[in-house]
């Protein structure tokens, strides 16, 4: 008897800091997600480090203005349902 090989395909969602193509679990439509940036743990950690280093005049607020420091929420553009939260930390 010859061994039988089987292949399993695993779909990996690429929910990072850019819009992703996915199927909404609520409206069951194939969509490209709408993203929204929110301050998360990394933002507040950098803020705290800058305060500790003496940047108290306003430089400590820079992480709150930089999207690459923030968490990303992915929403369905059709039904506005939250699909995924991408956390930097």
From TrEMBL:
InterPro entries: LITAF (IPR006629), LITAF_fam (IPR037519). It is a peripheral membrane protein. Keywords: Membrane, Metal-binding, Transmembrane, Transmembrane helix, Zinc. Residues 4-88 form the LITAF domain. One of its GO terms (molecular function) is zinc ion binding. GO terms for cellular component: cytoplasmic side of late endosome membrane; cytoplasmic side of lysosomal membrane; nucleus. Pfam families: zf-LITAF-like. The chain crosses the membrane at residues 41-66. It is found in: Endosome membrane; Late endosome membrane; Lysosome membrane. Belongs to the CDIP1/LITAF family. This is LITAF domain-containing protein. It comes from Pyxicephalus adspersus (African bullfrog).
